[in-house]
Amino acid sequence: MILHFGRKMLCELVHTRTPDLARLDGALYRTASPRHTRLDGALLFSGLAGNFYSSRLMHSIARHLLESGLDVLLANTRGHDGINWISIGGRTEAQGAAFEMVDDCRHDVAGWVRFLAQRGLEKIAIVGHSLGAIKALYAQAHQPQPAVKCIAAMSASRLNYDQFQQSFAADRFKHWFESATQLVQAGKGRQLMRVDFPFPAFIAADAYRDKYGPPSRYDWTQFIDRVHLPVLLVFGATELQSNAAFLGIMSSVDDLRNKCPQLQSQVVPGADHFYVGRRQVVSKLVCQWLGNLPLE
Hints:
The chain has 296 residues and is α/β, with parallel strands linked by helices. The protein has helices at residues 56-67, 105-118, 131-142, 161-166, 170-185, 205-212, 237-242, 249-256, 279-292, and strands at residues 2-4, 8-17, 23-29, 41-45, 71-75, 84-88, 91-95, 124-129, 148-154, 192-195, 201-204, 231-236, 263-268. The strands form 3 sheets. A 9-stranded mixed beta sheet has the order 1-2-3-5-4-8-9-12-13, sandwiched between helices. Strands 6-7 form a two-stranded antiparallel sheet. It starts with a strand and ends with a helix.
């Protein structure tokens, strides 16, 4: 298959099996460009309901990484797309953003890192956007992979129950959380809801409670100190001002610096959550950061 990243580039469609036997698909690009970092490759994850082939942001970053001499794997997690059917240990299950339990990302990351090692890529950067960034941080904090040497996390929202309860959108959050709770208590945890907080989406009641309810297990500010790697946090200036999942987040980042000496952050002026009109800027920023890392 040939895709266009500014020029024709050969792409291999690949798949892996996770430790719990879920099949995941992706696209592997090998580059002949001179390498400007000690890393071997980069593993890229899109955000909520994203997939390996449709994100303009991740394709922009992939192109810049390839030009800097890194091989790139654009990869699905089991939460790709709104709803998908996935093979897990010989049985087919409904997955996707509507049904995923984020904790399963530990298995997804492990499966792809093992795949890359089998292809000779032993020093890996993970680059994630939105929920993909949260998954990268969560997986490395709870099931660290030695081959992962650094993480660039773009627009990692703060999934914190208490903060949502106190935000300007508290009424909407309380409505949906109470609706999800009632469905779960009625034994209908897999029933879909069409929510509008924190993002418009179809999501199962139990998945909504898992992502956004107490004890806020996916609030990366509570576990990033367990990620003993260089981490770059990137945010768009616009999203910091307008999205309830980002309000006050830079104050938390400032507080974390003492506990996380390898933590760096950047705010991209004029950028929204998807970096529309700023994709070249954020792509260059990530590549420059990777190129300057003093890796072993």
